[in-house]
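User: Can you predict the 3D structure for this chain?
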Amino acid sequence: MPTMKDLAPEIFRQRLLMEARWNIEVDAEMVRGYLLGLSAELGLTPYGEPIVFSPAAGQGRPENAGFDSFLPLINSGISGYFWTEPRFLSVVLYSCTAFDPDAAVAFTKGYFAIQGRVACSVF
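Assistant: Here is the predicted structure, written as structure tokens:
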């Protein structure tokens, strides 16, 4: 696959994708707390409340059940996807302000009691 060309080099953008398996029970309130805690840990400022969605029973495939979430930030946002049965998360942090990816990984690992590694990509 070709590398994406930077079409707007004058605009600073930093993106981080994290994926991992967690070891605790997770509900919508925990997802909200995670988004707010991650933004605070990284010094990023929300301008709204976290939004957390969970399809009603019978909607979608059972193996995909969980939570979809978003926290708007002054300089972009955090999107999170949490599958409850396999206890798997995929979080995308997009910011026009620099942040420490290692701090994001450490916070995520601690918050969800992740025993294994957090796979991540910074771009």
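The helical segments are 28-42, 101-111. The longest helix spans residues 28-42.
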